[in-house]
């Protein structure tokens, strides 16, 4: 995987950088927290970025993943926590054991009470977490979504692992190539509310409208809830319900590993193609035993690293979340905030038999 140190701009978007800015401004009045307010206030009372501001020492960053027992989220958060040491801060991870829509709300409330400097959240639902996140921002606690976005006015930044459009379309392209552009396919997703998976699935459906996929049909989107057992059972259910099924795209590390495990020890091995997003360490044995030809992902450690630096830059007043602002993310180099407060880590990597042993995560 390459290091990306060039500046980048967001790809997908509507219009929230300004809202995020407005929320920040709102948050600057009537709160108990008064860190560095004067140097982030412009003449009109609006938050202005000070690109020369030093990263503050002693920043407290809290990572709130979709669920704590998801191996992928753990890699991201551990890397982010480790990164805080580079700028003299501290980090921790707290979170629910299931990825249901409202499971993160009570954690956000506790983090507000603890006066964290920033909350980094992989949101389980775009809206369920919004009210407490707005409360946090009003109290000058910075909010950075990563992995899975919230509604855009409920956070200041979204650290996207790769361009959502490319993630979605490429998964269809990859499975189609293996299927000679023919046959029934299904998607095994995470939870029904997951913003990241739902965004990717929209792009998959759009990709499938192109004439080159005219002989392919998406028969079902199933949800394994990022739960290993449920994902395993949903795979079984799909294959039973659709005897002509030729491929399954699982855009979740939990789902693809469970689907591959089921297929690898069934009569479908070698007959049903599995594609999607997985970690090399979870998928290695299925690539080596021929169950899976290829899958994709980005480097989750770099996602945590970039998230930590972005949160620190926000909490130090280097950036406010507005489009066009730039900051340096340690050894990853300079990043630029794109439309709607989106920062893109870089393109995904495709893993297969040839390169999988070069990766260990
Ligand atoms: C799962 C989660 C996460 C997603 C990865 C690819 O671990 O659903 O949100 O980004 O898969």
In short:
By secondary structure, the chain is of the alpha/beta class. The chain has helices spanning 17-27, 71-83, 105-113, 130-138, 164-178, 195-208, 228-241, 253-264, 280-288, 300-315; strands at 60-64, 90-93, 118-121, 142-146, 157-160, 183-189, 216-223, 245-250, 273-276, 294-297, 326-328, 334-336, 342-344, 349-352. It is elongated, with a radius of gyration of 21 Å.
**Rg result:** 21 Å
Work out the number of β strands: 14
- The assigned CATH architecture of the largest domain is 3-Layer(aba) Sandwich
Domains (count): 2
Q: Strand percentage, roughly?
A: 15-25%
Q: How would a crystallographer describe the biggest sheet?
A: 6 strands, parallel
Helical content, roughly?
Answer: 25-40%
* The CATH superfamily title of the largest domain: Response regulator
Number of helices: 10
CATH topology of the largest domain: Rossmann fold
Can you list the strand order of the major beta sheet?
A: 2-1-3-4-5-13
- Low-pLDDT stretches are 1-45
Instruction: Look at the structure and give the CATH class of the largest domain.
Output: Alpha Beta
List SSEs in N-to-C order. HEHEHEHEEHEHEHEHEHEHEEEE
Structural class by sheet pairing and helices = alpha/beta
Q: Tell me the distance between the termini.
A: 12 Å
From the spread of the alpha carbons, the general shape counts as: elongated
Are any ligands bound, and if so which?
A: alpha-L-rhamnopyranose
| Mean of all residue-level pLDDT scores | 90
